[in-house]
Amino acid sequence: MQTTYERELSQSKEFLTQNDHFLIVSHVQPDGDAVSSTLAVGWLLSCLGKKFVMVNEGPIPKRMRYLWHAEEILDLSVTPLDRQFDHVICVDCADFKRVGTTHERFAEGARLLNIDHHPTNDHYGTVNLVVPHAAATAEILFDLINHMGLELDESVATALYTGLLTDTGGFRYSNTSPKVMAAASKLLEYGVDGPGLSELLLEQMTLPQLRLLTRALNGLELTEDGKIGWVSVTDEDLKATGAVHEDMEGIVNYPRNIQGVEVGLLFKVINEQAVKVSMRSAGKVDVARVAQSFGGGGHVRAAGARIEGTLNSIIPRVLEQVRQQL
Ligand code: AMP
Ligand code: MN
Ligand code: MN
């Protein structure tokens, strides 16, 4: 008997082989898994001789430009794309909103292949390849490429390894399953530079990034019981330090790493009307549920939401929701 996963893999294979002229999109402010998964799907379609365009609402992080054809991911905020696509592949997007403005390039009635690993995924695709226990979307793509009988090479192996490495925090988080380690082991056999990628993606910091971290930590706050810790970053902080948006990645781990803290939060002011909140849990609190109550989503230990309002009005609301889960 076919498992659900095998059936979804077969349906995805059919979607990719039976159609052509695809649009590949990932979520706004793409992370390592989002970028890698976009490129891995592009690589897969190239193997099939298909035509495709890769896009994102904004730029991809500078430090990921080493990846195979990374420069071909169009930044729609600077490069307009004047056509629409009937076949779209969404990677690493828990819900339709996560694709941001790229949806303007979806034709009316476009058929969607939704490849993702968030437990909060609402199956918005025409075809859904959603595996909540997968550590990264890259893990699912590793399986899909194998399912399709394609032989990996170093370039796609490097992309897939990047997705696994970043979404498992360097193979340390609780999602680092035996399957992840087996896949990573296989990818290393294709010549992936594991230590080099760890150095580049997890160790190295730019000076503005370090300055931003210092500045943010200066404003660290804790609840009286020491169970919730948070920091916030405003546009002013970015300007003062010369840091860019992607430099905020990872800051949320610091409040979470304090002994006794159950939930670490990072509030990033997007503009006067909206704040992005990143949530990390030590394990007791399901932050995906907290994020969902604000229209966001994610995983039990790592989740996020974009909330309308000012920083001062949002912080107490989020703290209250977290407290209820404690
Ligand atoms: P972040 O805090 O942005 O690093 O995101 C942590 C996790 O939550 C990642 O798996 C994200 O994909 C997910 N996530 C972040 N923001 C949202 C959102 N607005 N909606 C759904 N999932 C989100
Ligand atoms: Mn992601
Ligand atoms: Mn992911």
Explained architecture:
This protein is an alpha/beta fold and 326 residues long. The protein is built from 11 helices and 12 strands. The chain has helices at residues 4-18, 32-47, 137-147, 154-167, 178-189, 194-203, 207-218, 235-241, 253-257, 287-292, 311-325, and strands at residues 22-26, 52-56, 74-75, 85-91, 106-116, 127-130, 221-222, 228-233, 263-271, 274-281, 297-298, 302-308. The strands form 2 sheets. Strands 3-2-1-4-5-6 form a 6-stranded parallel beta sheet. A 6-stranded mixed beta sheet has the order 7-8-9-10-12-11. A hairpin with a 2-residue loop joins strand 9 (263-271) and strand 10 (274-281). The model has no long low-confidence stretch (mean pLDDT 97). Residues 27, 31, 33-34, 92 line the site of one manganese (II) ion. One manganese (II) ion binds at residues 27, 31, 33-34, 92.
Give the helix level as a range of percent.
25-40%
Distance between the termini: 42 Å
Query: What is the string of SSEs from the N terminus onward?
Result: HEHEEEEEHHHHHEEHHEEHEEH
The major beta sheet can be summarized as: 6 strands, parallel
Unreliable segments of 5+ consecutive residues: none
What small molecules accompany the polymer chains?
A: adenosine monophosphate, manganese (II) ion
Please state the overall shape, judged from the principal axes of the Cα atoms.
globular
Total helical elements = 11
Oligomer: single chain
Instruction: Assess the beta-strand content as a share of residues.
Output: 15-25%
Strands side by side in the biggest sheet: 3-2-1-4-5-6
